[in-house]
């Protein structure tokens, strides 16, 4: 209201790694709108604008309540003129016309549909769109289109894979992986990572980190797990990438988001996943199983803390950890190492807390990393 004294807002950092962001998002109406804009810019390869909207959404996600007027966001970082005008529309009309225009755009709709298939990235989607294809049946009946194995699997299990994975299903998969790794090596170390480690109720996949205390022994771990899952008859798809990580070449490593550890992107057959309350889809009740995406990464034990921190996410949290290290500490952080450019040395860490300490950051619990 007119003349109201502005409420003092505790300073919110521009870095997600200096904010605590639980899974509770009071400003979904705004962050959903920003995500549409970010996706639209991403599909048009406007990286800067895409990132700007992702950053803005991330800032709103850490707020302890609903934004009711533009005054509520005064002083917050990462909210520019464009984001504010979108918020103003939503505050005034309950919706944003710019977002609605994107949502009804044929190109956006088609690219979103195509990239929702496992194995189809923005480039392939764009190529199909330019060829005049608009639907799955267009793609599947077009004789000139060759689908790779990943895309064939994506179409085959489309319904299952696009349905969210529940916490109960993640737990059931955890038990399956746990049994497999410990049958292979009793001293195996298994950790849940990704969104479920951050306390999310649903996810698009389930992410795990597996390793063993014996250095070098982890090299055969994923192939052995994959063999077991195959023998158990639950392996529907497997894309295994062997490690290209070489510690002796560390100083020349490029610092980037992708890591060099052994990993595999799987689709597993999960039996009897009953949702409490019995809200199973008819198809699942009929079959008694569903297909689920599972990611496994297997770093050597001395890289455990960095890998765990890197694979826990969220993506925005990871991005800002790296940005903070670089611009505020003259350090380089990635999934393998933390390097201090001033001291010219690699910093050792056995826990995530060690890494936060090196960076001079307060420890942020996994469930506070939903930036
Ligand atoms: P969701 O599955 O519930 O949708 O969310 P999520 O668990 O946060 O996302 P994710 O796509 O499964 O990624 C989890 C973390 O793993 C994320 O912080 C990024 C990180 N990650 C890497 N390397 C790779 C990689 O090569 N592929 C993928 N997909 N994720 C990677 O550090
Ligand atoms: Mn995940
Ligand atoms: Mn994943």
Your description of this structure?
The chain is α+β, with helices and mostly antiparallel strands and 371 residues long. The protein folds into four domains: 94 residues, Orthogonal Bundle (DNA polymerase, domain 1); 51 residues, Orthogonal Bundle (DNA polymerase, domain 1), CATH 1.10.150.20; 138 residues, Beta Polymerase, domain 2 (2-Layer Sandwich); 62 residues, DNA polymerase, thumb domain (Beta Polymerase, domain 3). The chain has 16 helices and ten strands. The strands form three sheets. A five-stranded mixed sheet has the order 2-4-7-6-5, with helices on both faces. A three-stranded antiparallel sheet has the order 8-9-10. Helix 1 crosses helix 3 and helix 10 packs across helix 12. It is globular, with a radius of gyration of 22 Å. The two termini are 31 Å apart. 34% of the residues are buried. The model has no long low-confidence stretch (mean pLDDT 93). One manganese (II) ion (MN) binds next to loops. This is DNA nucleotidylexotransferase.
């Amino acid at each position: 209201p007119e003349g109201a004294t502005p409420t003092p807002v505790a300073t919110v950092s521009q870095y997600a790694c200096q904010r605590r962001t639980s899974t509770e998002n009071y400003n979904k109406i705004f962050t959903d709108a920003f995500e549409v804009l970010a996706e639209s810019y991403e599909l048009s390869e406007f990286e800067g604008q895409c990132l700007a909207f992702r950053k803005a959404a991330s800032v709103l996600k850490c707020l302890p309540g609903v934004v009711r007027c533009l005054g509520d966001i005064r002083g917050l970082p990462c909210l520019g003129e464009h984001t504010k005008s979108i918020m103003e529309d939503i505050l005034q009309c309950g919706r944003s016309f710019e977002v609605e225009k994107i949502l009804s755009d044929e190109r956006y709709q088609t690219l979103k549909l195509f990239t929702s298939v496992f194995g189809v990235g923005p480039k392939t989607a764009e190529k199909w769109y330019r060829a005049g294809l608009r639907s799955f049946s267009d793609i599947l009946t077009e004789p000139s289109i060759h689908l790779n194995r990943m895309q064939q699997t994506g179409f085959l299990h489309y319904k299952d894979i696009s349905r969210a994975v529940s916490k109960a299903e993640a737990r059931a998969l955890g038990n399956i992986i746990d049994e497999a790794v410990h049958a292979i090596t009793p001293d195996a170390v298994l950790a849940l990572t990704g969104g479920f480690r951050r306390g999310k109720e649903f996810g698009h996949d389930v992410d795990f980190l597996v390793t063993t205390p014996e250095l070098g022994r982890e090299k055969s771990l994923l192939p052995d797990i994959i063999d077991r899952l195959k023998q158990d008859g639950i392996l529907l798809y497997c894309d295994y990438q062997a490690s290209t990580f070489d510690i002796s070449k560390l100083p020349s490593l490029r610092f980037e988001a992708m890591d060099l550890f052994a990993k595999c992107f799987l689709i597993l057959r999960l039996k009897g996943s009953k949702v409490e309350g019995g809200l199973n889809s008819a198809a699942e009740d009929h079959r008694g199983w569903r297909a689920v995406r599972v990611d496994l990464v297997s770093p050597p034990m001395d890289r455990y803390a960095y890998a765990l921190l890197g694979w826990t996410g969220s993506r925005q949290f990871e991005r800002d950890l790296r940005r903070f290290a670089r611009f505020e500490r003259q350090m380089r952080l990635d999934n393998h190492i933390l390097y201090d450019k001033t001291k010219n040395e690699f910093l050792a860490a056995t826990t995530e807390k060690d890494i936060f300490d090196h960076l001079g950051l307060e420890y942020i619990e996994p469930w506070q990393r939903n930036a």
